[in-house]
Amino acid sequence: MSESIKNLTARDFDDFISEGNVVIDFWAAWCGPCRMQGQILDQGADDFAAAGIKVGKVNIDQENALASRYGVSSIPTLLIFKDGEQIKTLVGIQQADSLKKQFA
């Protein structure tokens, strides 16, 4: 995983999303589409960073309370935040370009 993508827990989640443009990937190790989404995020990590977009990942098996808090029932689910406010929920595999366009 790219160094610019942060694995998040309930302890650091709120602080991570509090400022700026943020993409959060809810995933699980046993989920094939989640692994594909992870590769897309890894490959686009430098572009996200250059665009001022932070990327975080939440493993739903380890952080079930966070998944419940945001109503995540299918994975991969990507939540889009702007300055701490959730502005969009995307379910299923998303390409890097479409994620960057969420902040345009």
Descriptive account of the structure:
- The chain has five helices and five strands, in the order E-H-E-H-H-E-H-E-E-H.
- The protein has a single domain (19-95), classed as Glutaredoxin (3-Layer(aba) Sandwich).
- Strand 4 and strand 5 form a beta hairpin.
- It is of the alpha/beta class.
- Strands 1-3-2-4-5 form a five-stranded mixed β-sheet.
- The protein has helices at residues 13-17, 32-43, 45-50, 64-69, 96-101, and strands at 5-7, 21-27, 53-59, 77-82, 85-91.
- The chain is globular, with a radius of gyration of 12 Å.
The CATH H-level homologous superfamily: Glutaredoxin
The class by helix and strand makeup works out as: alpha/beta
Number of strands: 5
Helix content: 25-40%
Number of helices: 5
H-E string = EHEHHEHEEH
The largest sheet has its strands arranged as 1-3-2-4-5
Please describe the biggest sheet, giving its number of strands, its sense, and whether it closes into a barrel: 5 strands, mixed
Mean pLDDT: 95
Radius of gyration: 12 Å
* Beta-strand content estimate: 25-35%
Number of domains: 1
N-to-C CA distance: 26 Å
**Under CATH, the topology is which?**
Glutaredoxin
CATH-defined architecture: 3-Layer(aba) Sandwich
Which features does this protein show?
alpha/beta, Glutaredoxin, 104 residues, globular
Which SSEs are present, and which pair or pack?
Layout: E1 5-7, H1 13-17, E2 21-27, H2 32-43, H3 45-50, E3 53-59, H4 64-69, E4 77-82, E5 85-91, H5 96-101
Parallel strand pairs: 1-3, 2-3
Antiparallel strand pairs: 2-4, 4-5
